[in-house]
């Protein structure tokens, strides 16, 4: 074996190890850890209710600092190894939403997530929230679909996000009598969850709770939301 070939093989081996063994903490960048102990501690759920428009959303984390880094790395940095640490807080937020449902008897409650855009599927190859739910031993129902391709929400203000999301989701099948907890990763303005709630209601279902992994602070003034069909829950 020539030295050159040996060097190439060694480099390929190192690349392979880097793929399966993350070399830095996805929260703070510390070397040789998937998630260091202090960042793991920062991801302990602190479930709290937040309001967006007339909706109450249960969020496990605040989208800042370590949580922001880890969630960003998980969603858009290929750090799927962070799933285990993020599944627990999401599960805690769902548990809080479930506990807040006035009456749980008389039938099950379905967990419904927001469908990814085609672009997001192409980029990621997986659905971040569905993957976390599966990691938590929960099974989302694919009840909603994207009606058309809406543009990316990043960088849009509250009113623009709401307009962008208007009627962007549709139920895949009738949801008559179905009770739903909507689950998403991050709630910012709430436009996405409110649109999902509208779509569930339009198909005959009822949204009995909203749960997210994290929430961002509201930085923009509230806008007037007047959708008649959004008034049925919480
Ligand atoms: Zn760390």
TrEMBL record:
InterPro entries: ComF/GntX_DNA_util-trans, PRTase-like, PRTase_dom. Pfam families: Pribosyltran (PF00156). Residues 171-217 form the Phosphoribosyltransferase domain. Belongs to the ComF/GntX family. This is ComF family protein.
């Amino acid at each position: 074996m020539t030295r050159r070939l040996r060097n190439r093989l060694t480099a390929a081996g190192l690349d392979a190890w880097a793929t399966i063994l993350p070399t830095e903490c996805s929260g703070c960048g510390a070397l040789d850890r998937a998630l260091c102990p202090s960042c793991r501690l920062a991801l302990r759920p602190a479930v709290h209710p937040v309001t967006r428009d007339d909706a109450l959303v249960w969020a496990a984390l605040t989208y800042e600092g370590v949580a922001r880094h880890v969630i960003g790395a998980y969603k858009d940095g290929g750090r799927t190894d962070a799933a285990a640490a993020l599944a627990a807080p999401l599960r805690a937020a769902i548990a809080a939403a479930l506990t807040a449902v006035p009456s749980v008897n008389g039938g099950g409650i379905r967990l419904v997530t927001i469908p990814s855009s085609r672009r997001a599927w192409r980029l990621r190859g997986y659905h971040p929230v569905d993957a976390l739910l599966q990691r938590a031993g929960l099974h989302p129902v694919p009840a909603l679909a994207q009606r058309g391709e809406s543009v990316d929400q990043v960088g849009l203000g509250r009113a623009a996000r709401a307009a962008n999301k208007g009627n962007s989701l549709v139920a895949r099948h009738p949801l008559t009598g179905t009770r739903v907890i909507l689950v998403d990763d991050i709630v910012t303005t709430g436009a996405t969850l409110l649109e999902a709630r509208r779509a569930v209601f339009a198909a005959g279902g009822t949204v009995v709770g909203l749960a997210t992994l994290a929430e961002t602070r509201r930085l923009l003034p509230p806008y007037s939301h007047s959708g008649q069909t959004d008034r049925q829950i919480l």
